[in-house]
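Box 3.1 A note on notation
Throughout this textbook, protein chains are presented in two layers. The first layer is the amino acid sequence; the second is a C-alpha cell string describing backbone geometry. Keep the layers aligned when reading.
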Amino acid sequence: MNQFWENVYVQTAAHYSVVILCVVVFLTVFELVTKYNNWEEIKKGNLAVAMATGGKIFGVANIFRHSITQHDSLLTMVGWGFYGYFLLLAGYFIFEFLTPKFNVDEEIQKDNRAVGFLAMVISVGLSFVIGANI
C-alpha cells in the first residue's frame, strides 16, 4: 500500500483534489465576508469583482503551491495552506481598514476597476510573501 501512496501520479491527484476542495471552501468564506455575491456580480459582467475574485483564487493556489513544495505529507500541506489562507483573509481586512475614504466592498460592487485591480494585486502579492514563509 505504501507504494501506492508514494506514486507521483497518486500524489499529484491527491494534492490537486485537496487544493480544489480548499479553494471551493475558501471562496465560500470570502463570499460570506464580502457584501456582494461574487458569482452574481461576475455573471452581470462586473470586471472589478472578477479581478478581485481571480486574485483570491490565484493567491490561494500560490500559497498551496509553496505548501506542496515545502511539505511531504498531505496533512501538513493542508495545515500550512489553511494558515496561509487565513493570513490572506487578514490581508483583505487590513486593506479595507487602510482605506477609510471609501469602502472596498462597495467600490468593487460598483465595478470600480481600479479598486478591483488593487484588490487582485494585493491578494497575489501577499500570496508570494505568505508562500515564501511557508
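The chain has a mean pLDDT of 93. Residues 2-133 form one domain.
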